[in-house]
């Protein structure tokens, strides 16, 4: 009976599939699934840069694209860039390796660079659209007012303006959208990075703010999915066993369960750690737990990797250890075009993993075998060995 129960638990733990309808084919076991996520500050990318982007599996552009500084212009800039890239490097272009292209949106704040939010910014009629502290001060981050997604009117506005704008203007040229800072402000960092450090909500009230954001993006994801678009959510929330940031932090399990009926991609920043310069590989450890709990697609970004340099094998190894279908890897030291390049590690054919999950050798060491290599790493020493087979 215990054996039967164990089988049932294991089946349930791996049954949270979210990538069954991803609208592009994954080729990440045939060639390395690399990501380019830059921006050109003035004008569109050059043909040489767009050709570089087309060598990657996923390519997209940040909010700084052709940054004129004019209110409402950024959405159009991103649209024009994705349109040119689609026409020149995807449509009838057999040499392009691109599986997906995306454009950028900021999740938690209303950006004056977006035309879709200009109407409600600095307008007292919409003051209840924003999170406010006990003194009625509108909470901001980097000067951007933070959406109160507990307000259903604000939710309706976001869905029918921000999300609708993405779909109606972009869907012919892109099939994914990057949403930055999807969850950190809702509790993960306890509003400490805003002007509302004296925010007096209880832990449960703050947690509800976070759940309201998740529920909004469940609705937004449904709308985007129906239009062939997959949201990429930059997520700081981690599995229950790794939560130690605040008393009200949401668990990743609650996030995954809330989004279980939609297709989305989780974005890990500064993988394998939580933040640049830190150690501990907590994102790597979280990812191992996550891949057993759910097979959600992921984009992983290793930060601090200069262009045209050798990527630390530890970064590649931690990615390979956790690679599943629709797993992608990017590396850079910034967010403009000049911070990204093609790396030699992307030329290696690692092959498909022969083990569903990595094997833990001891408290800090892991092993996983692939068609064309074996990967061993130790998270304490941050050392990795990728042993390619002789016929690779």
Give a nutshell description of this structure:
The protein has 392 residues and is α/β, with parallel strands linked by helices.
Radius of gyration: 21 Å
**What is the chains' assembly state?**
single chain
Provide the structure class: alpha/beta
Assign a percent range to the helix content: 25-40%
Number of helices: 8
The string of secondary-structure elements, in order, is HEHEHEEEHEHEHEHEHEEEEE
Tell me the count of domains.
Answer: 1
CATH topology: TIM Barrel
- The first-level CATH class is given as Alpha Beta
Largest sheet: 8 strands, parallel
- The largest sheet has its strands arranged as 1-2-3-6-7-8-9-10
Which regions contain 5 or more consecutive residues with pLDDT less than 50? 1-15
Shape: globular
Provide structural commentary.
This protein is an alpha/beta fold and 392 residues long. It has one domain: TIM Barrel. 28% of the residues lie in helices and 16% in strands. It is built from 8 helices and 14 strands. The chain has an 8-stranded parallel beta sheet with strand order 1-2-3-6-7-8-9-10, covered by helices on one side. It has a 4-stranded antiparallel beta sheet with strand order 11-12-13-14, with helices on one face. Strand 4 (140-141) and strand 5 (144-145) form a beta hairpin.
